[in-house]
Design brief:
12 helices, 3-stranded mixed β-sheet, 12 strands, 7-stranded parallel β-sheet, globular, alpha/beta
């Protein structure tokens, strides 16, 4: 298939490109720059110039493809609600082109969308659109497209990592550097799920090949790593003390990051592993943190 891939030069998308090519697909990658276009061509893909703000470019890319994988997202989390609204518009634009065909659309969301609020890990069979998380807009848009006959499915992501980036943990490390302390909310027993970026890339390709309308997948290798375990490695590598904050203190200390800092959000991938025969085997989150180059600002 000829696959239109948004976020093709990004952290995850750039790993999906070689996985798609190795599986025999052609790749048309969205990029906003000539430099990005050059990197895509060098990787064996085609480049499609455009951006998330230019919905005409989004629609044109989808129209030129047999399938779409949407990984692009504006990761300025200080504007998280606005960026989730932007993602909703992009998903609607992609779906508008695919209506009336069987061409698959695989969008991206977060594992928190599968939280049943019963104390257990988030699950693929759960989606509560009324939870106060703006990322729900992405899956609400997908549900509307599914009702219109679009072959849409969802890949939900945990903290995706290698030795350079670790999802939300990268800005957490930056805050620790700035504040001169490594802070946890309470005892830091809240948990975050995780997966290595190469395992995640492979999950996307397996899900695309399955093309099951309405399916939800969790690209989760580790169900839940405690914030305390992360903090201990960060504190050791940065030679900073660990402190405990109350929720009220966390709001002042973390700023925009406070909405994530104390969340307990473990997630299961039992159904995903069974459906896709996906067996993640990459390094763990803590192993990648331990091997990270802390002399340079993470994620830059």
């Amino acid at each position: 298939m000829r696959v239109f891939l948004t976020g093709a030069t990004g952290f995850i998308g750039s790993r999906i490109v070689p996985e798609l090519l190795a599986a025999g697909h052609q790749v048309l990658g969205l990029t906003r720059s000539e430099a990005g276009a050059g990197s895509l061509v060098a990787a064996g893909a085609e480049a499609h110039l455009g951006s998330l703000e230019d919905l005409d470019s989004i629609r044109a890319g989808a129209a030129a493809a047999d399938a779409v994988i949407h990984t692009a997202f504006d990761h300025d989390f200080s504007r998280f609600p606005d960026n989730c609204e932007k993602d909703r518009r992009v998903i609607e634009a992609l779906g508008s082109v695919l209506k009336g065909s069987a061409r698959p659309l695989l969008i991206t969301s977060g594992t928190g969308m599968g939280d049943a609020e019963d104390g257990g890990p988030a699950r693929e069979d759960v989606f509560n659109p009324h939870r106060p998380n703006p990322r729900a807009l992405s899956e609400i848009a997908a549900q509307a497209l599914l009702a219109d006959g679009v072959n849409v499915s969802v890949m939900r992501l945990p903290q995706v990592h290698d030795t350079v980036k670790q999802g939300l943990i990268s800005p957490y490390i930056a805050i620790c550097r700035e504040k001169g302390v490594v802070a946890c909310v309470g005892e830091g027993l809240n948990r975050w799920p995780a997966a290595h970026v190469l395992d995640v890339a492979r999950a996307y390709v397996l899900a695309l090949d399955r093309s099951e309308a309405g399916a939800r997948y969790h690209a989760v290798a580790e169900e839940g790593i405690t914030a305390r375990a992360v903090a201990e490695i960060v504190a050791s590598r940065l030679d900073l003390p660990i402190i405990s904050l109350s929720p009220d203190e966390a709001a002042d200390h973390f700023g925009w990051f406070a909405m994530f800092a104390g969340l307990d959000m473990p997630a299961s991938s039992t159904r995903t592993r069974a459906k896709l025969n996906w067996n993640p085997d990459g390094p763990t989150l803590l192993a990648d943190l331990g091997d990270m180059d802390f002399l340079n600002e993470p994620g830059q």
